[in-house]
Design a protein that fits this description.
Radius of gyration of chain C: 24 Å
CATH architecture of the largest domain in chain A: Orthogonal Bundle
Number of domains of chain C: 2
Distance between the termini of chain C: 16 Å
CATH superfamily of the largest domain in chain C: MetI-like
Chains: A mainly alpha, B alpha+beta, C mainly alpha
Number of domains of chain A: 2
CATH architecture of the largest domain in chain C: Orthogonal Bundle
Largest sheet of chain A: 2 strands, antiparallel
Oligomer: heterotrimer
Structural class of chain C: mainly alpha
Radius of gyration of chain A: 23 Å
CATH class of the largest domain in chain C: Mainly Alpha
Distance between the termini of chain A: 15 Å
CATH superfamily of the largest domain in chain A: MetI-like
Largest interface: A-C, 115 and 120 residues
CATH class of the largest domain in chain A: Mainly Alpha
Number of helices of chain A: 14
Order of helices and strands of chain C: HHHHHHHHHHHHHHHH
CATH topology of the largest domain in chain C: MetI-like fold
Strand content of chain C: under 5%
Number of strands of chain C: 0
Largest sheet of chain C: none
Amino acid sequence: MTSLARGAGTANRRARSRGARSWMRGPAPVALLFLLPALIALIVLRLAPAGVALVDSLYRESLLSGTTFVGLGNYLELFANPDFQNSITVTLLFTVIVNPLQVAAAFLLAVLFTRKAAGSRFWRSLVILPIAVPPAVSAVIWSVIYRPDGLGNGILAVFGIPPQSFLTSPEQSLMSIIVLLSWIGVGYWMMFLIAGINDVPGEYYEAASLDGASAWRQLWTITFPLVRRPLAFVLVADTVSNFLIFAPVQILTKGGPNGSTNLLMYDIFTRAYTFADVNKAQAEVVILVLITIVIVALQFRLLRTED
Amino acid sequence: MRRPTTITAGVIAAALALTGCAGSADSSGSSGDGSGAVSFVGPEDPAVFAPVIDAFEAAYPDITVDYTQVPFDTYATTLQQRLSAKDDTIDVFAVDQPNLAQIAAQGFLEDLSDLEDEAKAATSAAQFDINIYDGTMYALPVWNSTQMLFYNKDILDAAGIEAPSLNPDERWTWEQVAEAGAQAQAAGIESGLLLEQAEAYYQLQPLIESLGGGSGITGDDMLTADVTTDGWVEAMEWYGGTFESGLSPRGVGGFQTSAVFTDQKTAFFVGGPWDIGGFADADFAWGIAPHPSFDGGEAVTPTGSWSWGVNTASTNKDAARTFLEFVALDAAGNLASTETQTIIPANTEAAAEYLPKLEALGGDNSAGAADLITYEIENTAVARPVSIGYVQFESIINAAIADIRNGSDAMERLTQAQQQIEDAWSQLR
Amino acid sequence: MTVSAPRRSSVQRRSSQRHSGRRRPSTRRSVLFIGTTLLAAVAGIAFFAPLWWSFVNSLRPGSETFRYLNPLQWQTFFTLTPTLDNYTALLDTDLSRAILNSLIVSVVTVLAGLAVCATAAFGLSAFRFRGQGLLFSVVILTFLIPFDAIAIPLSDMFRDWNLQNTFVGLILPGIGNGMAIFLLRTFFLAIPEELVEAARLDGLGWWGVFTRIYLPLSRPALIGAGLMLFLFQWQAYVWPLLMGTDREHILGPVALSNLQGQFQVDYGVLFAASMVLVLIPLIIILSFQRYFIQSVTTSGMK
């Protein structure tokens, strides 16, 4: 079964690259024409300001003594700062936990919601819906869930579980933020996986059923490999999105208790907007983008070597 | 430059202000009233400023005021960005008083020194001083604040606790409040005490200063952090203890704290005059008492609220100033700014007229509020420090307070905060 | 044109036949059906519960919001005395204006953004040319850059172009969305080569291939990308504040935040406003659900 699914994928790809080579001369200008509007938009609206940020990160602007060029001074100071070191650690820990968790949950939910069930479309709309809740409001809702005397402990009590400290203890705060973010995001990422799973031809399942493969085996041997591309998209997009999150932290924990939720993006936001230390904040942005590039490149490589 | 004339004008204006006709004094200013549209930016609902804008436009038909609201939670940061971009779509803006120094140091606030005497006459000493940075007055105070102790009378009665006195001379100590709170808890109430802004420097500064801990900022340039003094540590240890012992609830933040009082889940609550309006509809008996102090410590209350200033990038400064003077120096104008919002007018004359109305909001429950507030503003109010590094200071200290509330060791956490503040301030010099 | 739209009925028939060949197919199938339904319902309700709680509280006076938190009781999730006061209170605010503005900004962004992003994704997936990998990397790079962080330099540029307090200034940053391009490219790559080759042999131009093969075959992905572009604007907060939000250009999230004063918050009104803000994406998500059932590519071709 595995060989069938994988074989189909590679054959397809090989045919494509062989065909592509022969058009080599023709298509490039046409392709560029198609790409042009987006490239202009991305360069003007993203890369140009990012370039400004990169240059800014090499300067220091002081309230009392003006602007000076400091080279890598901002970076060196950041890496010497224990709070920044902690922020990096927290961010990496967060990344390692949140992304596999959300992608796995999104995948399982996508499988669930592509099976035949009564009201499936309705139930899955409810799962997607949290992405539409304004961040300010989801933070309020979850602050009520996480209050020591709040809904969370009320529900746990129904199952006989003792009250938890949630956001008020450094041990549970990051996990609490992860659960909140998963509530918001999992349904959204699920949506793209549903689109991917629906692309899997029914014949594959028929063949597998005739071979006597169990539903669970079919999931791993057919669905999983064939939605690899949408999965790769979801993994990368989810990872990047999670790097850029700060609103719930800003509203709920302000990075605490004891820096346990001080994600890099929140640190950047506070430094840029609250402390008005734009230059050092831009240095942090550069570091964040570099970390993201490394991790995303790693993910692309991992997914490539798989076939 | 034109200092002599303005001083004379100022003295005349001050004299007029004392006799209560400050509103008509503007016309003697050298620059005239101005005309056209004034754009005003603040963090309140438009309904709050509608009465004062209406009153102003009636008094000065040549000027119109367009108000833009920026959400409170991002007000300071949004303003910082827009002012530093020399955004001339802002003429007058509301300034959170402790942020004034930073904004003024960046040159975003028009020098208002020529109005100094008028301002001094119109408001309390603490409210006047807070607008001075580096010897220059940059804004005019519009609103003021204070804090007091609220208690749930029904709960105290049921627990057999005698309610605290309204008399400032018989001010309760924090130790007394904690003891009575614990007693109420023993009688079945969930919490004994809760401070409204449980993780805010504004709320905790009086506890620290009551024990002689200082504001936390010292030095000639007000850029030396000093948050590990005995007073700081002792006050914060006591505060952390109230959560450790369960006297106060952890994890309740933002605006959910006052609901703990109205849902009858705490015996004592420390809050501001706005709560008198908020508690007015409560279906239980409550009362007010002076803000507590520590046993053997000094009586200290929080103060300060909002001033308004003129943007240096404004293209309609004359009209902007006219509007500002109307709101801050004219008693009627200042009073109109508090018509829909329960807040104390910074203008002394307006406050005298306003406070009885405020007191009446809570009926019998808030009897004596007017005298109490007046007393505290005049005698015990200690403003937040004026420093260009206040914004960073406050953000770091608030995080430390939150951590101590959640169980961090006070001494350790304050030492860390001291280091963080020094780091953050190094970029200012 | 030999290419036809995907044959949906055949797919459905096939999937319903999935478990045939078992010994007692009907019992097994109905057990599976009920089990799946139960799981789906539990998942749906679990995700919806927090929203339901805020919906119930939007029907209650703000003073009662936190009254029934713990221990759980039926009043926590239900009310016998619903009132629309919180919703009528919204009429006095800028919210309706803000929602209208947000709709304008979001819809224009979706239309323009889809055009820009889909053509780019087509350029990155239908052709092979040198430098393609590099261009794709650039696209990836653009969405690794945190927008809220570069918003400061970008807003300086926009102010130079006098775009503060304009719809153009609000819409533009949403148009170029690297993640949407990445998404569309992912799904475009699944479109079989043979289909394109056949169409090209029939004399169809590249624009025709794009509009008549790629776009119709990628509906779920286009909807996903559209929702992505929509939500970027529907939830925009930091950017509109930097661009200046006078009352003519106020957006939904800003108006919502404006309801949270500095002294008090009426949570009843706040929840009512957020329900209104959730309603429009809800309608969109619900109404586009049916396109998600279509199997689009491989099976449609055979």
